[in-house]
Write a structure and sequence with these properties.
mainly alpha; 2 domains; 83% helix
């Protein structure tokens, strides 16, 4: 499909979503009564609210998927110009893997075993790894800030 066909299709889809959403809003506003209880409101236009929520969720998921897919396509197509970003992503992934699987432990403290909490060794390792990763990234950020300021003073 060429670009004009894609633009036309997306414009039609966008217009259809707008018309359906506006229609649902009008139907809900017409059926709404200021003196009704919550149960009466659900009985009168609960299905319309469900439809509006489904449309919102579907459009949100589609937008998020499009942003991720087009972002990845753009990143991969311009990989030569994005080598610094690729190195940063790889370094972040290595730091995350080291934090989660090397530096964090999977022991569960007795205080969490004695009461009814559901702390498993895997949950303990993931939360510990997340904390360690945050600490490492914080130290890197502070170091970068100090390095930048010191290098500005020297120049």
């Amino acid at each position: 499909m060429n670009d004009k066909g894609l633009q036309l299709g997306l414009s039609i889809l966008r217009s259809l979503i707008i018309v359906i959403g506006a229609g649902l809003c009008v139907f809900i506003a017409v059926k709404a009564d200021g003196d009704e209880t919550i149960d009466m409101g659900i009985a009168n236009y609960g299905g319309l609210l469900d439809g509006a929520i489904y449309i919102t969720n579907i459009v949100g998921v589609l937008c998020a998927a499009a942003a991720v897919i087009f972002g990845v396509i753009y990143f991969v197509s311009n990989l030569k110009g994005n080598m610094g970003s690729l190195v940063g992503i790889i370094a972040f992934a290595v730091l995350a893997l080291v934090s989660f699987f090397v530096l964090s432990g999977n022991e569960v403290l007795k205080v969490y075993q004695s009461n009814d909490s559901v702390v498993t060794p895997m949950i303990s390792q993931v939360s510990g790894g997340g904390l360690i990763l945050v600490y490492i990234l914080s130290f890197i950020a502070i170091g970068a800030i100090v390095w930048t300021e010191v290098s500005k003073m020297i120049k």
